[in-house]
Amino acid sequence: MHRILAATLAASVCAPCAQAQTSLPMVSQEGLTLEQALTLAGSNAPGIGAADAGVRAAEAQRRVAGQRPNPSLNAEVENVIGTGGYSGVRGAETTVGLSLPLELGGKRSARIAVADSQAARARLAIGVARADLALSVTQAFNLAVASERRALVARDQLVTADEGLRVARVRVRAGRASPLEEQRADVTRINTRTALEQAERTVVLARGNLARLIGREPGALDVSWFDRVGGGMGPREAAAPGGTLALAIAEADVATTNAQVRLARSQRVPDLTLSAGARRLEATNDVAAVFGVSLPIPLFNNGRAGVDVARAQKDQAEALRRVALFDAQQAIATAETDLANAEANARTATGPALAAAQEAARIARIGYREGKFGQLDLLEAERTLAQTRAAAIDALAAHHDAQARLERLTARAPADTEVQP
Protein backbone atom coordinates (compact mmCIF):
# COMPACT_ATOMS: atom_id res chain seq x y z
CA MET A 1 0.00 0.00 0.00
CA HIS A 2 2.82 2.36 0.81
CA ARG A 3 4.33 1.97 -2.68
CA ILE A 4 1.03 2.65 -4.44
CA LEU A 5 0.27 5.75 -2.38
CA ALA A 6 3.81 6.98 -2.70
CA ALA A 7 3.57 6.73 -6.47
CA THR A 8 0.29 8.66 -6.43
CA LEU A 9 1.73 11.38 -4.26
CA ALA A 10 4.90 11.62 -6.30
CA ALA A 11 2.86 12.06 -9.45
CA SER A 12 0.99 15.00 -8.00
CA VAL A 13 3.54 16.83 -5.83
CA CYS A 14 7.27 16.96 -5.30
CA ALA A 15 8.64 16.09 -1.89
CA PRO A 16 10.23 19.10 -0.22
CA CYS A 17 13.78 19.23 0.99
CA ALA A 18 13.40 19.81 4.72
CA GLN A 19 16.93 21.11 5.07
CA ALA A 20 16.79 23.81 2.43
CA GLN A 21 13.23 25.04 1.82
CA THR A 22 11.97 28.30 3.28
CA SER A 23 8.32 27.88 2.21
CA LEU A 24 5.84 25.15 1.54
CA PRO A 25 6.77 23.04 -1.51
CA MET A 26 5.74 24.36 -4.90
CA VAL A 27 5.02 21.97 -7.72
CA SER A 28 5.64 22.69 -11.37
CA GLN A 29 4.10 19.52 -12.69
CA GLU A 30 0.63 20.16 -14.06
CA GLY A 31 -2.34 18.10 -12.98
CA LEU A 32 -6.09 18.35 -12.60
CA THR A 33 -6.92 22.00 -11.86
CA LEU A 34 -9.78 23.23 -9.73
CA GLU A 35 -11.44 24.75 -12.79
CA GLN A 36 -11.31 21.41 -14.60
CA ALA A 37 -12.73 19.66 -11.56
CA LEU A 38 -15.60 22.14 -11.47
CA THR A 39 -16.32 21.54 -15.15
CA LEU A 40 -16.29 17.77 -14.72
CA ALA A 41 -18.55 17.96 -11.67
CA GLY A 42 -21.01 20.20 -13.51
CA SER A 43 -21.64 17.52 -16.12
CA ASN A 44 -22.00 14.84 -13.45
CA ALA A 45 -24.18 16.53 -10.82
CA PRO A 46 -27.64 15.08 -10.20
CA GLY A 47 -28.63 18.19 -8.25
CA ILE A 48 -28.30 20.36 -11.35
CA GLY A 49 -30.28 17.82 -13.36
CA ALA A 50 -33.06 17.91 -10.79
CA ALA A 51 -33.13 21.72 -10.83
CA ASP A 52 -33.21 21.71 -14.63
CA ALA A 53 -36.20 19.34 -14.56
CA GLY A 54 -37.88 21.77 -12.18
CA VAL A 55 -37.39 24.57 -14.70
CA ARG A 56 -38.95 22.49 -17.45
CA ALA A 57 -41.90 21.71 -15.20
CA ALA A 58 -42.34 25.41 -14.36
CA GLU A 59 -42.22 26.37 -18.04
CA ALA A 60 -44.85 23.75 -18.82
CA GLN A 61 -46.97 25.11 -15.97
CA ARG A 62 -46.63 28.55 -17.57
CA ARG A 63 -48.14 27.19 -20.77
CA VAL A 64 -50.96 25.58 -18.77
CA ALA A 65 -51.67 28.87 -17.00
CA GLY A 66 -52.07 30.67 -20.33
CA GLN A 67 -54.69 28.27 -21.69
CA ARG A 68 -58.32 29.28 -21.79
CA PRO A 69 -61.20 27.11 -20.53
CA ASN A 70 -62.46 24.47 -22.93
CA PRO A 71 -65.98 24.74 -24.43
CA SER A 72 -68.52 22.07 -23.60
CA LEU A 73 -70.76 20.13 -25.98
CA ASN A 74 -74.27 19.80 -24.56
CA ALA A 75 -77.11 17.49 -25.64
CA GLU A 76 -80.55 17.33 -24.03
CA VAL A 77 -83.72 15.39 -24.79
CA GLU A 78 -86.96 16.66 -23.17
CA ASN A 79 -90.59 15.55 -23.02
CA VAL A 80 -89.95 11.82 -23.42
CA ILE A 81 -91.27 8.69 -21.69
CA GLY A 82 -94.20 10.59 -20.20
CA THR A 83 -97.95 10.14 -20.30
CA GLY A 84 -100.58 10.89 -22.83
CA GLY A 85 -99.18 12.74 -25.78
CA TYR A 86 -95.72 12.61 -24.31
CA SER A 87 -95.48 8.85 -24.09
CA GLY A 88 -92.51 7.40 -25.93
CA VAL A 89 -90.61 9.97 -27.96
CA ARG A 90 -93.50 11.47 -29.94
CA GLY A 91 -93.22 14.79 -28.12
CA ALA A 92 -89.47 14.81 -27.74
CA GLU A 93 -87.52 18.02 -27.98
CA THR A 94 -83.82 17.51 -28.69
CA THR A 95 -81.34 20.29 -28.03
CA VAL A 96 -77.71 20.25 -29.11
CA GLY A 97 -75.41 23.16 -28.33
CA LEU A 98 -72.10 24.51 -27.06
CA SER A 99 -71.26 26.19 -23.76
CA LEU A 100 -68.29 28.52 -23.50
CA PRO A 101 -67.00 29.76 -20.11
CA LEU A 102 -65.79 33.35 -20.09
CA GLU A 103 -63.20 34.15 -17.40
CA LEU A 104 -63.70 37.58 -15.89
CA GLY A 105 -61.65 39.64 -13.46
CA GLY A 106 -58.25 38.95 -15.10
CA LYS A 107 -57.98 35.35 -13.94
CA ARG A 108 -55.87 34.23 -16.90
CA SER A 109 -53.32 37.05 -16.60
CA ALA A 110 -53.16 36.45 -12.83
CA ARG A 111 -52.44 32.76 -13.37
CA ILE A 112 -49.73 33.66 -15.86
CA ALA A 113 -48.14 36.06 -13.35
CA VAL A 114 -48.03 33.30 -10.71
CA ALA A 115 -46.51 30.86 -13.20
CA ASP A 116 -43.91 33.41 -14.32
CA SER A 117 -42.75 34.03 -10.76
CA GLN A 118 -42.60 30.30 -10.08
CA ALA A 119 -40.54 29.77 -13.24
CA ALA A 120 -38.10 32.46 -12.11
CA ARG A 121 -37.88 30.73 -8.74
CA ALA A 122 -37.12 27.44 -10.50
CA ARG A 123 -34.33 29.06 -12.52
CA LEU A 124 -32.89 30.34 -9.26
CA ALA A 125 -32.79 26.74 -8.04
CA ILE A 126 -30.34 25.96 -10.86
CA GLY A 127 -28.10 28.79 -9.68
CA VAL A 128 -28.29 27.50 -6.12
CA ALA A 129 -27.44 23.96 -7.26
CA ARG A 130 -24.43 25.20 -9.24
CA ALA A 131 -23.20 27.37 -6.36
CA ASP A 132 -23.58 24.52 -3.88
CA LEU A 133 -21.76 22.19 -6.25
CA ALA A 134 -18.91 24.68 -6.69
CA LEU A 135 -18.55 24.89 -2.91
CA SER A 136 -18.57 21.10 -2.50
CA VAL A 137 -16.02 20.55 -5.28
CA THR A 138 -13.73 23.31 -4.02
CA GLN A 139 -13.84 21.93 -0.48
CA ALA A 140 -13.22 18.37 -1.72
CA PHE A 141 -10.34 19.54 -3.93
CA ASN A 142 -8.93 21.52 -1.01
CA LEU A 143 -9.11 18.52 1.32
CA ALA A 144 -7.54 16.24 -1.27
CA VAL A 145 -4.56 18.54 -1.82
CA ALA A 146 -4.17 19.22 1.90
CA SER A 147 -4.23 15.50 2.71
CA GLU A 148 -1.54 14.85 0.11
CA ARG A 149 0.56 17.61 1.64
CA ARG A 150 0.11 16.11 5.09
CA ALA A 151 1.10 12.69 3.77
CA LEU A 152 4.26 14.20 2.27
CA VAL A 153 5.10 15.82 5.59
CA ALA A 154 4.54 12.49 7.35
CA ARG A 155 6.78 10.74 4.82
CA ASP A 156 9.53 13.32 5.39
CA GLN A 157 9.16 12.82 9.12
CA LEU A 158 9.56 9.07 8.67
CA VAL A 159 12.76 9.61 6.68
CA THR A 160 14.04 11.91 9.42
CA ALA A 161 13.03 9.41 12.12
CA ASP A 162 14.86 6.60 10.30
CA GLU A 163 17.95 8.77 10.07
CA GLY A 164 17.64 9.72 13.75
CA LEU A 165 17.46 6.03 14.71
CA ARG A 166 20.53 5.26 12.59
CA VAL A 167 22.51 8.08 14.20
CA ALA A 168 21.38 7.03 17.68
CA ARG A 169 22.57 3.46 17.07
CA VAL A 170 25.94 4.71 15.89
CA ARG A 171 26.31 6.88 18.98
CA VAL A 172 25.26 4.06 21.31
CA ARG A 173 27.66 1.57 19.72
CA ALA A 174 30.45 4.13 19.92
CA GLY A 175 29.75 4.56 23.63
CA ARG A 176 28.87 8.24 23.16
CA ALA A 177 25.24 7.87 24.26
CA SER A 178 23.02 5.81 26.50
CA PRO A 179 20.95 2.92 25.01
CA LEU A 180 17.94 4.96 26.07
CA GLU A 181 18.57 7.26 23.13
CA GLU A 182 18.20 4.37 20.70
CA GLN A 183 14.93 3.35 22.36
CA ARG A 184 13.59 6.91 22.11
CA ALA A 185 14.51 7.10 18.46
CA ASP A 186 12.86 3.75 17.79
CA VAL A 187 9.63 4.87 19.50
CA THR A 188 9.69 8.06 17.44
CA ARG A 189 10.10 6.06 14.23
CA ILE A 190 7.20 3.73 15.14
CA ASN A 191 4.88 6.65 15.93
CA THR A 192 5.91 8.43 12.75
CA ARG A 193 5.17 5.34 10.64
CA THR A 194 1.72 5.06 12.23
CA ALA A 195 1.05 8.73 11.48
CA LEU A 196 2.08 8.15 7.86
CA GLU A 197 -0.33 5.25 7.51
CA GLN A 198 -3.14 7.38 8.88
CA ALA A 199 -2.25 10.21 6.51
CA GLU A 200 -2.21 7.84 3.53
CA ARG A 201 -5.66 6.52 4.43
CA THR A 202 -6.90 10.10 4.61
CA VAL A 203 -5.50 10.69 1.12
CA VAL A 204 -7.45 7.72 -0.22
CA LEU A 205 -10.65 8.98 1.41
CA ALA A 206 -10.25 12.58 0.21
CA ARG A 207 -9.41 11.56 -3.35
CA GLY A 208 -12.34 9.13 -3.36
CA ASN A 209 -14.75 11.87 -2.31
CA LEU A 210 -13.41 14.13 -5.05
CA ALA A 211 -13.69 11.33 -7.60
CA ARG A 212 -17.35 10.81 -6.72
CA LEU A 213 -18.06 14.47 -7.35
CA ILE A 214 -16.28 14.74 -10.71
CA GLY A 215 -17.26 11.28 -11.94
CA ARG A 216 -13.77 9.92 -12.51
CA GLU A 217 -10.44 9.32 -10.84
CA PRO A 218 -8.78 12.71 -10.32
CA GLY A 219 -5.23 11.53 -11.05
CA ALA A 220 -2.51 14.08 -10.33
CA LEU A 221 -3.73 17.35 -8.79
CA ASP A 222 -2.48 20.84 -9.58
CA VAL A 223 -1.37 21.71 -6.07
CA SER A 224 0.17 25.07 -7.03
CA TRP A 225 -3.33 26.47 -6.46
CA PHE A 226 -3.04 25.45 -2.82
CA ASP A 227 -0.09 27.76 -2.18
CA ARG A 228 -1.77 30.87 -3.53
CA VAL A 229 -3.13 33.18 -0.86
CA GLY A 230 -5.52 35.64 -2.47
CA GLY A 231 -6.19 39.22 -1.55
CA GLY A 232 -3.91 42.02 -0.59
CA MET A 233 -2.61 43.09 2.78
CA GLY A 234 -5.07 45.97 3.05
CA PRO A 235 -8.79 45.78 3.90
CA ARG A 236 -11.05 44.53 1.10
CA GLU A 237 -14.36 46.10 0.21
CA ALA A 238 -17.24 44.50 2.06
CA ALA A 239 -19.63 42.52 -0.12
CA ALA A 240 -23.29 43.52 -0.22
CA PRO A 241 -26.04 40.92 0.01
CA GLY A 242 -28.06 42.57 -2.74
CA GLY A 243 -28.32 40.42 -5.85
CA THR A 244 -27.09 37.27 -4.13
CA LEU A 245 -28.85 33.96 -4.58
CA ALA A 246 -30.15 33.88 -1.03
CA LEU A 247 -31.80 37.28 -1.31
CA ALA A 248 -33.03 36.64 -4.85
CA ILE A 249 -34.83 33.50 -3.66
CA ALA A 250 -36.58 35.44 -0.90
CA GLU A 251 -37.58 38.16 -3.38
CA ALA A 252 -38.88 35.55 -5.81
CA ASP A 253 -41.04 34.09 -3.04
CA VAL A 254 -42.42 37.57 -2.33
CA ALA A 255 -43.20 38.06 -6.02
CA THR A 256 -45.00 34.73 -6.11
CA THR A 257 -47.17 35.60 -3.12
CA ASN A 258 -48.01 39.01 -4.65
CA ALA A 259 -49.16 37.25 -7.78
CA GLN A 260 -51.18 34.79 -5.70
CA VAL A 261 -52.96 37.68 -3.96
CA ARG A 262 -53.89 39.07 -7.37
CA LEU A 263 -55.11 35.62 -8.45
CA ALA A 264 -57.20 35.23 -5.29
CA ARG A 265 -58.83 38.61 -5.91
CA SER A 266 -59.62 37.73 -9.51
CA GLN A 267 -61.29 34.50 -8.40
CA ARG A 268 -63.86 36.53 -6.44
CA VAL A 269 -65.30 37.70 -9.75
CA PRO A 270 -67.88 35.17 -11.05
CA ASP A 271 -67.36 33.75 -14.54
CA LEU A 272 -70.03 33.80 -17.23
CA THR A 273 -70.95 30.75 -19.23
CA LEU A 274 -72.54 31.43 -22.63
CA SER A 275 -74.38 28.71 -24.43
CA ALA A 276 -75.94 28.42 -27.88
CA GLY A 277 -77.59 25.53 -29.64
CA ALA A 278 -80.37 24.22 -31.82
CA ARG A 279 -83.61 22.54 -30.63
CA ARG A 280 -85.63 20.12 -32.74
CA LEU A 281 -89.30 19.59 -31.89
CA GLU A 282 -90.40 16.05 -32.74
CA ALA A 283 -94.06 16.88 -33.00
CA THR A 284 -93.69 19.47 -35.78
CA ASN A 285 -90.21 18.61 -36.98
CA ASP A 286 -89.27 22.26 -36.56
CA VAL A 287 -85.84 23.58 -35.46
CA ALA A 288 -85.25 26.62 -33.27
CA ALA A 289 -82.21 28.31 -31.78
CA VAL A 290 -81.56 28.25 -28.04
CA PHE A 291 -79.35 30.75 -26.17
CA GLY A 292 -78.39 30.84 -22.51
CA VAL A 293 -76.31 32.65 -19.94
CA SER A 294 -75.13 31.13 -16.65
CA LEU A 295 -73.74 33.19 -13.77
CA PRO A 296 -72.88 31.63 -10.38
CA ILE A 297 -74.14 33.37 -7.26
CA PRO A 298 -71.35 33.85 -4.64
CA LEU A 299 -73.66 33.13 -1.76
CA PHE A 300 -71.68 30.68 0.39
CA ASN A 301 -68.16 31.12 -0.97
CA ASN A 302 -67.39 34.63 -2.10
CA GLY A 303 -63.60 34.11 -2.24
CA ARG A 304 -62.81 36.38 0.71
CA ALA A 305 -61.17 33.58 2.68
CA GLY A 306 -58.89 32.79 -0.27
CA VAL A 307 -57.77 36.41 -0.41
CA ASP A 308 -57.06 36.40 3.32
CA VAL A 309 -54.93 33.28 2.93
CA ALA A 310 -52.96 34.82 0.07
CA ARG A 311 -52.38 38.05 1.99
CA ALA A 312 -51.14 36.16 5.04
CA GLN A 313 -48.74 34.19 2.85
CA LYS A 314 -47.54 37.46 1.33
CA ASP A 315 -46.88 38.94 4.78
CA GLN A 316 -45.00 35.78 5.71
CA ALA A 317 -42.85 35.94 2.56
CA GLU A 318 -42.01 39.61 3.17
CA ALA A 319 -41.00 38.83 6.75
CA LEU A 320 -38.85 35.94 5.55
CA ARG A 321 -37.21 38.26 3.03
CA ARG A 322 -36.17 40.58 5.86
CA VAL A 323 -34.87 37.55 7.76
CA ALA A 324 -32.93 36.43 4.67
CA LEU A 325 -31.40 39.90 4.31
CA PHE A 326 -30.33 39.92 7.96
CA ASP A 327 -28.93 36.38 7.77
CA ALA A 328 -27.06 37.16 4.54
CA GLN A 329 -25.49 40.30 6.00
CA GLN A 330 -24.42 38.41 9.11
CA ALA A 331 -23.11 35.38 7.22
CA ILE A 332 -21.16 37.49 4.72
CA ALA A 333 -19.61 39.61 7.47
CA THR A 334 -18.58 36.48 9.37
CA ALA A 335 -17.15 34.86 6.24
CA GLU A 336 -15.18 37.99 5.36
CA THR A 337 -13.69 38.07 8.86
CA ASP A 338 -12.86 34.37 8.68
CA LEU A 339 -11.19 34.87 5.31
CA ALA A 340 -9.13 37.84 6.53
CA ASN A 341 -7.98 35.88 9.59
CA ALA A 342 -7.22 32.81 7.50
CA GLU A 343 -5.15 34.88 5.06
CA ALA A 344 -3.14 36.38 7.90
CA ASN A 345 -2.56 32.96 9.44
CA ALA A 346 -1.56 31.46 6.10
CA ARG A 347 0.95 34.22 5.36
CA THR A 348 2.51 33.88 8.80
CA ALA A 349 2.53 30.09 8.90
CA THR A 350 4.05 29.72 5.44
CA GLY A 351 6.60 32.47 5.93
CA PRO A 352 8.79 33.43 8.91
CA ALA A 353 7.44 30.77 11.29
CA LEU A 354 8.09 27.91 8.89
CA ALA A 355 11.54 29.20 7.91
CA ALA A 356 12.57 29.56 11.54
CA ALA A 357 11.40 26.03 12.43
CA GLN A 358 13.24 24.55 9.44
CA GLU A 359 16.45 26.33 10.34
CA ALA A 360 16.19 25.23 13.97
CA ALA A 361 15.68 21.60 12.92
CA ARG A 362 18.62 21.78 10.50
CA ILE A 363 20.93 23.10 13.20
CA ALA A 364 19.69 20.50 15.70
CA ARG A 365 20.38 17.63 13.26
CA ILE A 366 23.91 18.82 12.57
CA GLY A 367 24.60 19.44 16.26
CA TYR A 368 23.25 16.02 17.25
CA ARG A 369 25.41 14.21 14.71
CA GLU A 370 28.45 16.10 15.96
CA GLY A 371 27.58 15.49 19.60
CA LYS A 372 26.96 19.15 20.41
CA PHE A 373 23.25 18.74 21.16
CA GLY A 374 21.41 16.08 23.07
CA GLN A 375 18.68 13.87 21.69
CA LEU A 376 15.95 15.74 23.52
CA ASP A 377 17.02 18.94 21.78
CA LEU A 378 16.76 17.18 18.42
CA LEU A 379 13.36 15.67 19.19
CA GLU A 380 12.03 19.03 20.30
CA ALA A 381 13.29 20.73 17.15
CA GLU A 382 11.79 18.01 14.93
CA ARG A 383 8.50 18.17 16.79
CA THR A 384 8.37 21.93 16.39
CA LEU A 385 9.09 21.65 12.66
CA ALA A 386 6.38 19.00 12.21
CA GLN A 387 3.85 21.10 14.08
CA THR A 388 4.78 24.21 12.12
CA ARG A 389 4.50 22.45 8.76
CA ALA A 390 1.15 20.96 9.79
CA ALA A 391 -0.02 24.38 10.94
CA ALA A 392 1.01 25.85 7.59
CA ILE A 393 -1.02 23.24 5.71
CA ASP A 394 -3.98 23.75 8.03
CA ALA A 395 -3.76 27.52 7.56
CA LEU A 396 -3.73 27.24 3.77
CA ALA A 397 -6.63 24.77 3.83
CA ALA A 398 -8.60 27.06 6.15
CA HIS A 399 -7.92 30.00 3.84
CA HIS A 400 -9.25 28.22 0.76
CA ASP A 401 -12.25 26.91 2.68
CA ALA A 402 -13.10 30.41 3.94
CA GLN A 403 -12.71 31.83 0.45
CA ALA A 404 -15.00 29.15 -1.02
CA ARG A 405 -17.65 29.78 1.64
CA LEU A 406 -17.55 33.53 0.99
CA GLU A 407 -17.87 32.98 -2.75
CA ARG A 408 -20.90 30.77 -2.13
CA LEU A 409 -22.54 33.39 0.07
CA THR A 410 -21.93 36.16 -2.47
CA ALA A 411 -22.85 34.11 -5.56
CA ARG A 412 -24.91 36.32 -7.85
CA ALA A 413 -28.36 35.41 -9.10
CA PRO A 414 -28.68 34.79 -12.87
CA ALA A 415 -29.97 37.72 -14.88
CA ASP A 416 -32.98 35.79 -16.22
CA THR A 417 -34.43 35.27 -12.75
CA GLU A 418 -35.41 38.83 -11.98
CA VAL A 419 -39.09 39.22 -11.15
CA GLN A 420 -41.15 42.17 -10.07
CA PRO A 421 -42.17 41.82 -6.41
Overview of this protein structure:
There is one protein chain. The chain is α+β, with helices and mostly antiparallel strands and 421 residues long. It contains 9 helices and 4 strands, in the order H-H-H-E-E-H-H-H-E-E-H-H-H. It has helices spanning 2-12, 34-42, 46-65, 107-173, 179-214, 245-266, 304-349, 352-369, 375-409, and strands at residues 72-78, 93-102, 272-281, 286-294. The longest helix has 67 residues, at 107-173. It is rod-shaped and about 140 Å long. Mean pLDDT is 83; it is low at 1-29.
Summarize, please.
This protein is α+β, with helices and mostly antiparallel strands and 421 residues long. The protein has helices at 2-12, 34-42, 46-65, 107-173, 179-214, 245-266, 304-349, 352-369, 375-409, and strands at residues 72-78, 93-102, 272-281, 286-294.
